[in-house]
């Protein structure tokens, strides 16, 4: 009897400690893992959001870039982290395509995580090195098809948004091209600017300043309507690639088992960050906007992730794309 009472007392103390810990959260620095290299679009979104969430939580949030394998290495890092709210993952649509692309994932995209909330949907742009010999999409397409053996396109690895857009593009034009994978489209952009790679499909959060600065060529944007921050850039739909729409949604996650008070604190800080005028302005300058408050919540991200996994599975299977 005595042992049982002692064990129950120990359990209550442990539970009490966990509840107290969750109620006091956060009491130390939080790590926000970005599963792509520094300087790319995912990194840009993360740093903007982290800075504002940090002010709300009154705790430092450091962004740690854990690139490779299309974002699955960084996601695995967070899946295995302690479920205490001090390691979170900022990922994008690639979290929903990885289950169909990677046969040996060490985590489950849904069950290994607690959703915190959606963040933003970012348009993509088809961009090329500055001296690419095509003045518009029509000429670009003709050149790519005529030179498919030598044209190279950059992406951030199988499962990245740039890979997904490239895969859809090659399917749409029925032409296979040589891919140059990077740990993120930050490094890929460096090679595009240097002319070492011919083109890529990348997010406006990474391409806007280079397009506006005339350092790369842009042939179209992957949204239904033209972007307010680049009204002269045609949609790919109007440029000649019908129904070519890709938006890169981003979500914030914690490891499975993270206590609800901690998730609520993170989601509350995310919602405040997405209403922060500085974040909204910077997103607008980069061609995107924060999601509505109702979407920056766990249940909205949970539902969206599930529907996206279900959506992309058959598309990826049909394209025959996968990684080992
Ligand atoms: C992607 O293609 O998924 C992203 O551009 C990767 C990154 O943020 O670098």
UniProtKB/TrEMBL annotation:
Residues 1-22 form the signal peptide. Coiled coil: none annotated. Pfam families: TctC (PF03401). Keywords: Signal. InterPro entries: BUG, Bug_dom1. Belongs to the UPF0065 (bug) family. PANTHER family: BLR1237 PROTEIN (PTHR42928:SF5), TRICARBOXYLATE-BINDING PROTEIN (PTHR42928). This is Tripartite tricarboxylate transporter substrate binding protein BugD.
């Amino acid at each position: 009897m005595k042992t049982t009472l002692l064990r129950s007392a120990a359990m209550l103390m442990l539970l009490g400690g966990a509840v107290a810990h969750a109620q006091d959260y956060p009491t130390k620095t939080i790590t926000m893992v970005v599963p792509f290299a520094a300087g790319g679009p995912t990194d840009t979104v993360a740093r903007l959001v982290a800075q504002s969430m940090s002010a709300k939580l009154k705790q430092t949030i450091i962004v740690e870039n854990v690139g490779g394998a299309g974002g699955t290495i960084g996601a695995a890092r967070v899946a295995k982290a302690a479920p205490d709210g001090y390691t979170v993952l900022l990922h994008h649509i690639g979290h929903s395509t990885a289950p169909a692309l990677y046969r040996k994932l060490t985590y489950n995209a849904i069950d290994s995580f607690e959703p915190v909330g959606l963040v933003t949907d970012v348009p993509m742009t088809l961009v090329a090195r500055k001296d690419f010999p095509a003045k518009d999409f029509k000429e670009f397409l003709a050149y790519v098809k005529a030179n498919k053996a030598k044209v190279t396109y950059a992406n951030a690895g199988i499962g990245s948004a740039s890979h997904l857009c490239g895969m859809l593009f090659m399917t749409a034009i029925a032409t296979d091209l040589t891919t140059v994978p990077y740990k993120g489209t930050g490094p890929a952009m460096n090679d595009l600017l240097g002319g070492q790679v011919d083109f890529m499909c990348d997010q406006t959060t990474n391409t806007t300043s280079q397009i506006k600065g005339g350092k790369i060529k842009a042939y179209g944007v992957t949204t239904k309507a033209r972007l307010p921050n680049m009204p002269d850039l045609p949609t790919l739909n109007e440029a000649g690639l019908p129904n070519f729409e890709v938006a890169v949604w981003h979500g914030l996650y914690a490891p499975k088992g993270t206590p609800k008070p901690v998730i609520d604190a993170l989601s509350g800080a995310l919602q405040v960050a997405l209403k922060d005028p500085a974040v909204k302005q910077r997103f607008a300058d980069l061609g995107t906007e924060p999601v509505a408050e109702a979407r920056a919540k766990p249940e909205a991200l949970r539902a969206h992730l599930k529907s996206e996994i279900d959506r992309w599975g058959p598309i990826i299977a049909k394209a025959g794309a996968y990684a080992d």
